[in-house]
Amino acid sequence: MPLKLKPPRPGKSPYWSVRGTYLGVAVDRSTKATDRATAAKVLRKIEADIKSGLVSPKGVKTFLDAAVDYMAATGHQEHLAPIVERLGAYAVEAIDQQLIDETAIALKPEAAAATRNRWVYTPISAILKHAGVEQSIRRPKGWRGTPRTDWMTPDQAFRLLEAAEGVDREFAIFLSFLLYTGARLSEGLGLKVDRLDLSEANAYIETSKNGDPYTAYLPPVLVADLANHPRGLGRQGQRVFRFTKCGRIYTLLDKARKAAGPDLAFVGFHTFRHTWATWMRRYGKSDTRGLLETKRWRDAASVRRYEHVVESEEARRADLLPTRNTRKNAK
Questions:
Q1: CB 3.0-4.6 Å disulfide test: which of 52, 70, 157, 245 passes with 152?
Q2: Is the pLDDT of residue 141 over 70?
Q3: Per-residue confidence (pLDDT) for residue 240, from 0 to 100
Q4: Would you give the distance in Å from CA 58 to the centre of its chain?
């Protein structure tokens, strides 16, 4: 039955109450109002909350429920607190494009589209997908941002690793791991000792950003670094590296950068991934398809950004262009 106002009950309660069912939600509560006009406003507010999804029927999964399940399954918590605070009470089925857009603007009013996408759209999409809600979420215009492919030359990378040795031995090995596997920061930090096999020269990355696990090959130089880990590797169930994604790890990188030289000021943790991909193209002779098959990326578009680091066969035809010497020889 629809929601109805019930008058105060003498000797029991001086307040009007609301009873009934609206859109499948059963209601039986006091309005805390002693006059009918105010109670009617409370009734309309209850209806609006139910219609918007702010109040859900019993047994219906809320965004908070979905977020808790997602965090328990993946361990990912980054950027989630303000989103859950705003959307937690909504039924997952009630979260639509308009609500997501409004949430992004409210949480990141001055941010660029790429930042809104990273901090709001992507986490919401991941939680809804994990909850089994198939919804095509439209990202904000310009959300891809401007792809950056800054990378280090061998000389720069080796100077940075050497500088990191002077800052913290384990941190230097961690940077070496990122450099020679192309792993993301979160993948390296989450790596467990029992997922590392130096005899087979590989590391199994269970959770990646694109959702696909992959096995990373460890070249000999990296195997040697890991074999000399200052805390050893006989720590089953523990993480290989003691660091977490907090201010300290960025402070360590900053110290190493400054010690290595001013030309390395541009380096961030993701630069190691770009450097690995660039070196795989330039020195490992991997093409776009080869890089894609490493499972570090899901789509070819993300890999093509590294095509510019290697001269194409057509570009090398510039060697055949006339020069002043060929003109003299022609005479």
A1: 157
A2: yes
A3: 96
A4: 32
Nearest-CA neighbor of 292 among 282, 303, 306?
303
Dist. CA 159–CA 222, nearest whole Å: 16
Residue labelled with tokens 């859900």: 56
Contact between residue 142 and residue 164 where contact means Cβ atoms under 8 Å apart:
no
> Residue 30: in which H helix or E strand, if any?
strand 25-33
- Asked if 176 and 169 count as a contact pair (C-beta separation under 8 A), the reply is no
pTM: 0.55
When pLDDT is averaged across residues 33-51 and rounded to a whole number, the result is 86
Is 80 exceeded by the pLDDT of residue 326? no
pLDDT in tens, 212-252: 788 889 999 999 999 999 999 999 999 999 999 888 899 99
Q: Are 185 and 201 in contact (CB under 8 A)?
A: no
Q: Quick one: which of 185, 227, 223, 222 has its CA closest to 207?
A: 185
Please write down the long-range contacts of 54-60, taking CB distance under 8 Å and 24 or more positions apart: 54/89, 54/90, 55/25, 55/89, 56/25, 56/89, 56/90, 56/91, 56/94, 57/24, 57/25, 57/26, 57/91, 58/26, 60/91, 60/93
Spatial separation of the C-alpha atoms in residues 89 and 61, rounded to whole Å: 9
